[in-house]
Specification:
Layout lengths: L2 E9 L8 E9 L2 E7 L11 E4 L4 E4 L1 E6 L16 H17 L2 E6 L7 H9 L7 E3 L4 E3 L16 E3 L3 H13 L4 E5 L18 H13 L3 E6 L2 H9 L4 E4 L5 H9 L5 E3 L3 H9 L7 H7 L1 H17 L22 H8 L5 H16 L16 E4 L16 E6 L2 E3 L14
Parallel strand pairs: 1-4, 1-5, 6-7, 7-8, 9-10, 11-12, 12-13, 13-14
Antiparallel strand pairs: 1-2, 2-3, 5-15, 15-16, 16-17
The structure holds zinc ion.
């Protein structure tokens, strides 16, 4: 691997809101050797290759904190209906598109047909472009849970296990498959005919067994927890990342605050917003979705996120992209929701996507900021997302994505040209 100095950068290191107008980043063997003002560049860089950023914005790579690379941009009720060979090709494409959109890390919240692990291995081996992927497998849920048929699906899409020992066995099978993540459903979904939000679909005994077994095997646990009850159950039993957390009460907020150094919350609001806005295209008109409770869910999430921010609980970007109403590659739309819907500043939203997402994605602390000693994962943006966060959604503005010190160019074209050391 080589060495490269990116100079003349509008540099966002991602530790705080600071921007360094005349910034430089020195990357050596995939690691950041220096980042800061060009005037502080250490000696020894005289013969190192230079990249003139021409004043472009240089920021840490983002983390998509709730990814489904097996989703194939289809109707939410017809997801993952393709045969395995086609699904794998789609997933390879989706990984490339996610990286090309500026996301250098991703946490899987479930992959149909077990696509994630071979995908992760191929990415790590440098065979295909994609983000650092914390890989999961099929969703784990109880009989009659949201995993068990709300959106259709046979056993290639889900693992149904009831009782602590069946759950432990299922999780042991996921360890054998070399997963990083176990995704479990603790409550349901407003579209479900049998498992709505607020009805717990696992007992405490079952969740305790799931988390203990996953942690013994070195896997982390992420949950679908919409209600305060499902959030409290997740926190009580020590899960790692809570998905959704739309409805919170005082007790849930207090419990999250007490564990805010260990736990993360990923609201994944794109699903509700786009379902309300574009559901009519899917035969799920707004009136009917409001009656189901989706507008209330958005309103409650806005107040939940405000309370989480007040309690300094880390809130992560991403979630449920890969439907026809939320196609892969539009993931940066989430930062716009963080600004417009949740009332964050652009820099706060960017820190959620970079620093905090990185801390969730990589527990060794090597991801999420451009501090010295971390992996050289960065994005070069033509424009300033702190002035307009929507710039990140424009793929023509993402002029370079570096992961592990390797610059990936033209990723949004088919057959991308990957140019190590360029
Ligand atoms: Zn999801």
């Amino acid at each position: 691997m080589g060495s490269l100095i990116i100079e003349n950068a509008n540099l966002f290191i991602g530790v705080d809101e600071e921007v360094i107008a005349d910034g430089a980043v020195w990357v050596s063997d995939g690691i950041i050797k220096f980042s800061g003002a060009v005037s502080d560049l250490p000696a020894g860089g005289e013969n190192v290759e230079r990249y003139d950023a021409l004043g472009k914005f240089v920021m840490p790579g983002m983390t998509e904190s709730h990814v489904h690379l097996s989703y194939n941009n289809s109707h939410p009720q017809q997801l993952n209906s393709e045969p395995l060979p086609v699904a794998m090709l789609d997933a390879v494409d989706n990984a490339r598109i996610l990286l090309g959109s500026g996301f250098t890390s991703a946490i899987s919240f479930g992959s149909a047909q077990g696509l994630d692990v071979p995908l992760r291995d191929a990415i790590n081996a440098g065979r295909i472009p994609g983000p650092r992927l914390a890989a999961s497998d099929r969703d784990l849920g109880s009989t009659g849970s949201n995993a068990d048929g709300t959106f259709g699906g046979d056993s290639s899409k889900k693992i149904i296990a009831d009782g602590p020992w069946a759950i432990r066995k299922a999780i042991r099978s996921l360890a054998k498959r070399r997963c990083d993540i176990v995704k479990i459903f603790l409550d349901g979904e407003a579209l479900s005919e049998f498992a709505p939000p607020g009805v717990l679909t696992y007992s405490d005994e079952e969740v305790a067994a799931a988390v203990e077994e996953a942690h013994i095997r070195g896997m982390r646990v992420v949950t679908h927890s919409r209600s305060a009850a499902a959030v409290k159950q997740a926190v009580q039993h020590g899960v790692d990342v809570i998905g959704h957390a739309n409805y919170l009460d005082d007790e849930a907020v207090d419990m999250l605050e007490a564990k805010r150094d260990q736990i993360f919350v990923c609201p994944a609001i794109a699903w509700e917003i786009t379902l309300l806005d574009r559901g009519s295209e899917l035969g799920l008109p707004r009136d009917a979705m409001e009656q189901r409770g989706y507008q209330k869910e958005v309103d409650e999430t806005i107040s939940a996120v405000k309370r989480l921010r007040d309690s300094k609980v880390r809130v992560l970007v991403g979630g449920d992209y890969g439907l026809n109403i939320t196609p892969h590659g539009t993931n940066s739309k989430d930062l716009e929701y963080f600004v417009d819907l949740f009332g964050m500043s652009t820099s706060e939203a960017l820190l959620c996507a970079t620093r905090d997402g990185g801390a969730a994605a990589d527990t060794s602390g090597m991801v999420g900021t451009l501090e010295e000693g971390k992996y050289a994962d960065l994005v070069i943006v033509d424009g300033n997302p702190l002035e307009d966060i929507r710039i990140l959604q424009d793929h023509s503005r993402i002029v370079g994505v570096m992961k592990d010190g390797v610059m990936h160019c033209a990723l949004m074209q088919k057959n991308p040209y990957i140019a190590p050391d360029e």
